[in-house]
Design a protein that fits this description.
With about 250 residues, the chain is α/β, with parallel strands linked by helices. It has two domains: about 130 residues, Response regulator (Rossmann fold, 3-Layer(aba) Sandwich), CATH 3.40.50.2300; about 110 residues, LytTr DNA-binding domain (OB fold (Dihydrolipoamide Acetyltransferase, E2P), Beta Barrel). It is about 25% helix and about 35% strand. A five-stranded parallel β-sheet has the order 2-1-3-4-5.
Length: about 250
């Protein structure tokens, strides 16, 4: 098994490091390297490559723009010194991303994971449900729900979240952000529609195209907004107002 690679980085030392790591890693073959995305794109349009190591922050055309411009991109591992670019990487169905400065141990661990996931014949049957939760078309994370909790994949981890710990869920384009009680929010590559389909309707209600709330945590409603605290106001849109008012009417004491 030979995995053909291209490396792209506008920093000479960083590019040399990736080149040396590829050279001493089994099954990887460096077919070309570039210090800019534009020249790399011209080659990628005409050359078949299996794996692309590309820096995100580059002049003229950055790594994200490069991958977006390719009709049929290879598997991509983004390299970056900026952790905040991780969401951009996963939105493009990147195989992984590596934070600079890179150690060889981190590099080879990432590559071994990518090999097993995408390139080993013994794992072909697993491609419809890979470790990062995307299916063979590279869509969404997996979600499994039970009577009292859900299991969700986020950043290569499987996380259990009890329903009573969820305050509300917000759609953020291709992602959902799950806000919890006394815990950090969890982000996952998934549509809010898919999330809504898996949640129990007796506990959760969609009140806006971008929000699902846990009804047990609704304490204050004012001016068509649900108030979770002094800084969080969830709007109740006209589309969902009747269903929410019906929920209130059944519990309202006169």
């Amino acid at each position: 098994m030979e995995i053909k690679c291209i490396a792209i980085d506008d920093e000479p030392l960083a590019l040399q490091q990736i080149e040396s790591y590829i050279a001493k890693t089994a099954n990887l073959k460096l077919t070309a390297s570039f210090d800019n995305a534009i020249d790399a794109r011209n080659t990628l349009q005409n050359q078949e490559v299996d794996l692309l190591f590309v820096d995100i922050n580059m002049p003229d055309m950055n790594g994200v723009e490069l991958v977006q411009s390719l009709t049929n991109p290879p598997k991509v591992i983004f390299t970056t010194a900026h952790r905040e670019f991780a969401l951009d990487a996963f939105a493009l169905d990147a195989a992984d991303y590596l934070l600079k400065p890179l150690s060889y141990g981190t590099f080879v661990k990432c590559v071994d994971k990518i090999k097993k996931r995408y390139f080993m014949k013994t794992h072909v049957d697993m491609l419809s449900s890979t470790e990062d939760g995307t299916n063979e078309n590279g869509t969404e994370e997996e979600l499994t729900a039970s009577s009292d909790c859900l299991y969700i994949k986020s950043e290569y981890r499987i996380i259990r979240i009890n329903y009573d710990q969820i305050k509300y869920i917000e759609s953020q384009r291709e992602y959902v952000c799950i806000y919890q009680v006394n815990a950090k929010p969890i982000m996952s590559l998934m549509t809010i529609k898919k999330m809504e389909e898996h949640l129990p309707t007796n506990l959760f209600m969609r009140v806006h195209r971008s929000f699902i709330v846990n009804l047990n945590h609704v304490q204050i409603i004012e001016r068509n907004r649900i108030v979770f605290d002094k800084n969080v106001y969830i709007p109740i849109s006209n589309q969902y107002k009747d269903a929410f008012n019906d929920f209130l009417d059944k519990r309202f004491l006169e």
